[in-house]
């Protein structure tokens, strides 16, 4: 009877390093496995962090040993995974929900089925899958999880779209549907319109026959940015400085007063969204990029009866409605396939992770979503 002897790398033998690492990762220094009775994943390379802090300081690339596949497990070779702001916040330790340390970064992505446990029937090698609901640890070359953690998708979707569909596009879709019943011809207003969620809102609103007013920050090349957003379907795009006027509604023209607003910035930018809202309108806050609070005038509550709401996708994923998540993902990917849905991204080789991270942190001047290509 042959045996395969696996020895964990010396740097990973301390018990604390195993918290938050992949299921099946060997906990002892030496593990003996019957070579003929176990299916093993290939060795993996991963971005890990052992403490919270600045992502460019606390993350590093390491090699992980093979993992044994149980009967219901699927080994997936990752193809692509994005760097989202929430990923950065988790590493910094400021996100409300984060994995125990040490941990592997990443929360969504797309991969190709590499190998299967003996009881897996719904997937085959070569299938494309995404973790659904999304889960921690997608910044690694191979992932082993049970079959029910994976959602099979079409392979005729560009991998960068498959890798990014679960967080930002789904956030945009849910916010458009969960707070106000929008009818064709209605209008929404949002700040942060150049963000991935912002780009998705513009296109999903257009598909529904809903107009959009969009606010962007003042920056060099703002006219080119306006043109790009209008190509996506934006009705109007204004810089924040253009809206420093008493009566912003004079800019509406033939557009109706917005029933719904979206805020991901906070501070003065959120106040500009509120100025546009109609009587009884609702503003939904889903981010706070300026790190400044939302301030609302008393008159907005008393005389306009405005409502302020919040949205957090991870909380929504924990609700009963999340059972429809995979249906919505397929809907969004079908829009991509039909050429009706797009957003700006930049693919970066996984080995250049820290270059992509610097861009995601705004150090190198890129405004596109950074997507790691494995």
From TrEMBL:
It is found in: Mitochondrion. It catalyses: a 2,3-saturated acyl-[ACP] + NADP(+) = a (2E)-enoyl-[ACP] + NADPH + H(+). SUPFAM superfamilies: GroES-like, NAD(P)-binding Rossmann-fold domains. Signal peptide: none annotated. GO terms for molecular function: enoyl-[acyl-carrier-protein] reductase (NADPH) activity. It comes from the Eukaryota. GO terms for biological process: fatty acid biosynthetic process; fatty acid metabolic process. Residues 53-372 form the Enoyl reductase (ER) domain. The keyword Lipid biosynthesis applies. Pfam families: ADH_N, ADH_zinc_N. Its EC number is 1.3.1.104. GO terms for cellular component: mitochondrion. Keywords: Fatty acid biosynthesis, Fatty acid metabolism, Lipid biosynthesis, Lipid metabolism, Mitochondrion, NADP, Oxidoreductase, Transit peptide. The keyword Cell membrane does not apply. Its main location: mitochondrion. InterPro entries: ADH-like_C, ADH-like_N, ER, GroES-like_sf, Mito_Enoyl-ACP_Reductase, NAD(P)-bd_dom_sf. Belongs to the zinc-containing alcohol dehydrogenase family. Quinone oxidoreductase subfamily. This is Enoyl-[acyl-carrier-protein] reductase, mitochondrial.
């Amino acid at each position: 009877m042959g045996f395969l002897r696996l020895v964990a790398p010396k740097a990973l033998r301390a018990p604390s390093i195993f918290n938050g690492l992949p299921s099946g990762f060997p906990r002892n220094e030496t593990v003996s496995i019957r070579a003929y009775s176990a299916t093993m994943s290939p060795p993996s390379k991963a971005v890990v962090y052992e403490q919270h802090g600045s992502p460019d300081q606390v993350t590093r690339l390491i090699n992980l040993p093979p993992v044994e596949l149980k009967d219901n497990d699927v080994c997936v070779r990752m193809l692509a995974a994005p760097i989202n702001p929430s990923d950065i916040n988790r590493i910094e330790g400021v996100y409300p929900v984060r994995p125990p340390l040490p941990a592997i970064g990443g929360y969504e992505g797309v991969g190709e089925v590499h190998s299967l446990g003996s009881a897996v029937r719904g997937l085959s090698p070569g299938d494309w899958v995404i973790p659904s609901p999304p889960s921690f640890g997608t910044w690694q070359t191979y992932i082993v999880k049970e079959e029910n953690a994976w959602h099979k998708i079409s392979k005729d979707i560009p991998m960068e779209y498959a890798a990014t569909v679960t967080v930002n596009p789904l956030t945009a879709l849910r916010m458009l549907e969960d707070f106000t019943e929008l009818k064709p011809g209605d209008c929404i207003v949002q700040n942060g319109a150049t963000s991935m969620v912002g780009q998705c809102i513009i296109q999903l609103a257009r598909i529904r026959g809903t107009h959009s007013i969009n606010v962007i920050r003042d920056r060099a090349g703002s006219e080119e940015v306006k043109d790009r957003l209008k190509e996506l379907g934006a009705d109007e795009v204004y810089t924040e400085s253009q809206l420093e006027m008493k009566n912003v509604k004079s800019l509406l023209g033939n557009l109706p007063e917005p029933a719904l607003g979206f805020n991901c910035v906070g501070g003065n930018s959120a106040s500009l969204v509120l100025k546009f809202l109609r009587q009884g309108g609702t503003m939904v806050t889903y981010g706070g990029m300026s790190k400044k609070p939302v301030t609302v005038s008393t008159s907005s509550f008393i005389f306009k009866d405005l409502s302020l709401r919040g949205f957090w996708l991870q909380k929504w994923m924990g609700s009963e409605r999340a059972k429809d998540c995979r249906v919505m993902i397929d809907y969004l990917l079908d829009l991509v396939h039909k050429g009706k849905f797009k957003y700006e991204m930049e693919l970066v080789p996984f080995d250049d992770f820290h270059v992509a991270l610097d861009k995601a942190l705004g150090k190198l001047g890129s405004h596109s979503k950074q997507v790691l290509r494995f």
